[in-house]
Amino acid sequence: MGPAPAGEQLRGATGEPEVMEPALEGTGKEGKKASSRKRTLAEPPAKGLLQPVKLSRAELYKEPTNEELNRLRETEILFHSSLLRLQVEELLKEVRLSEKKKDRIDAFLREVNQRVVRVPSVPETELTDQAWLPAGVRVPLHQVPYAVKGCFRFLPPAQVTVVGSYLLGTCIRPDINVDVALTMPREILQDKDGLNQRYFRKRALYLAHLAHHLAQDPLFGSVCFSYTNGCHLKPSLLLRPRGKDERLVTVRLHPCPPPDFFRPCRLLPTKNNVRSAWYRGQSPAGDGSPEPPTPRYNTWVLQDTVLESHLQLLSTILSSAQGLKDGVALLKVWLRQRELDKGHGGFTGFLVSMLVVFLVSTRKIHTTMSGYQVLRSVLQFLATTDLTVNGISLCLSSDPSLPALADFHQAFSVVFLDSSGHLNLCADVTASTYHQVQHEARLSMMLLDSRADDGFHLLLMTPKPMIRAFDHVLHLRPLSHLQAACHRLKLWPELQDNGGDYVSAALGPLTTLLEQGLGARLNLLAHSRPPVPEWDISQDPPKHKDSGTLTLGLLLRPEGLTSVLELGPEADQPEAAKFRQFWGSRSELRRFQDGAIREAVVWEAASMSQKRLIPHQVVTHLLALHADIPETCVHYVGAPLDALIQGLKEASSTKGRMVMSRGGELVMVPNVEAILEDFAVLGEGLVQTVEARSERWTV
């Protein structure tokens, strides 16, 4: 046989189906149908279009597998709809880190490790002799008081370990942070470094020397300092790559002591490690009075000793369970949308990860659960468990030398102990923050149980800043006035424990004061502190007064909100003196219709709009009376629509009516068109007000 024609060779090369043309084509309809079939077979499929999958009859009608049946059953019971399941899965795809980016991050981490271990050492000097520091770097710590005992020398870290959510696979976009623990050699530390901030001074000097040398390396596009979870005694060094990967990742370096260097018994919440004589600059008291405990200071030291043990615990529980990792990622998105994880004392992603571990250990969560099931279980636990009253613990030891939960409840507002039994994971979380988390968890569970069509968007896709979540919001600024409030409220032990952070020291007493004053009007009081921005290594660390604005949110009860009377005890009761002391000049004796003579406070409010702003009067009066915070420092945002409604009412008093003749008499009747126009203006004002006080956050 000879070679095939060129056309047939071409068709064979391209792999197209060969079409045999008949010698005689049919005529009429049959011919047209045959011609149509020929064109269909001859034309190749359009590029980029999906082609239908050809299934045999047996494959098309085969029975579903057990996995498919379980998925359908799980979707029906737990997701309420297939749409919700698809939405959750797509969200997880968006927030997860891709494998390609992981490879680039791993390569950058290897470069960081090589450079950190090559930083040259520094000979030993006194802690107060810091002349060896180069001129282009500043110590990232407020050294107040400056005089402190001890010596310091720099040696390369004994071990460099990646810790945190990156290794666990639970970090979420868009901000990828990788925490790296640098274990300082034992030669740097001394036995009594736990006293009087000596350890924190050495930690800050260690970072300063690292920052100076790493900033000269062309690998890094940005080298700066930041506070770890807002704690001003624990700075960290932030490294970002140069070039197009600058926004890919932020590596945070955390110096930590060697394992078992600090004795846990010296860091119990009942112990003191900041001497009053050193902190206040006074001679020791000779009356033998005990030193006040420093539970928060002790906790900050303990946190650096358990970084690796916490990583091992989380890795043991989460590494083999993808559903648990997905649940932690969803919980982090839930916290971020509500801004509950921001600033000092926030409910962080690390806390919800440890909470998942606790629920797994108590068999309230199983390792085979899906991410959505984990989300529901954690929200249900938060909504029904008050850790300010009944704390929880991961410690399984029955050692009698371990402190009891009651000891931690005396020192902290919220109690959640780690597996060692010595560290309170929620030491920085205030009662107000936890109650806000509880409130949001209850609302989220109600939303999930309602099976609303937009439940997914409201739960995980809609930002909910404080201005949206609360009825009234007040901003305290400048924060320097809180220093005077600490002196007025005599918060010396709190200042000593918080290392001079007067904002943190005054926050608890101020919220307690306002909760007592607002009483039945208040449903929830929460606070928000913006995270302290990072700063250049050549600058001094930001001061406490420069940390932005302290924001308080008030969620009010409709019942009793507009009451102008605060009714106190009868004049002859012993509680009357406390009432007069609390309300000051506002308290006065009044006789009521039933003949009783009581202490009472009457607020000035003539109209309903003024009555809705009575909480403003309460807040400004109590802050000025008890904390020396003037009214000019309280920027109150409440009932913002009252002015708009009042303006519409004044305008409608003239144009909302019209004169008509009825039975020979002129009468005033409503002008329907004018009223509808007012409603349209009101609607536009509502939209503008909400948009002006909200922001959009995309996952």
UniProtKB/TrEMBL annotation:
Region (Disordered) residue spans: 1-48
Any matching Pfam family: Nrap_D3
A GO MF term: RNA binding
Start and end residues of each Nrap protein domain: 178-318, 324-462, 468-627
Keyword annotations: Chromosome, Nucleus, RNA-binding
Subcellular location: Chromosome; Nucleus, Nucleolus
GO cellular component, one term: chromosome
Task performed by this protein: Part of the small subunit (SSU) processome, first precursor of the small eukaryotic ribosomal subunit. During the assembly of the SSU processome in the nucleolus, many ribosome biogenesis factors, an RNA chaperone and ribosomal proteins associate with the nascent pre-rRNA and work in concert to generate RNA folding, modifications, rearrangements and cleavage as well as targeted degradation of pre-ribosomal RNA by the RNA exosome.
Subunit-level organization: Part of the small subunit (SSU) processome, composed of more than 70 proteins and the RNA chaperone small nucleolar RNA (snoRNA) U3. Interacts with RRP7A; required for NOL6 localization to nucleolus.
Protein name: Nucleolar protein 6
UniProt source species: Pan troglodytes (Chimpanzee)
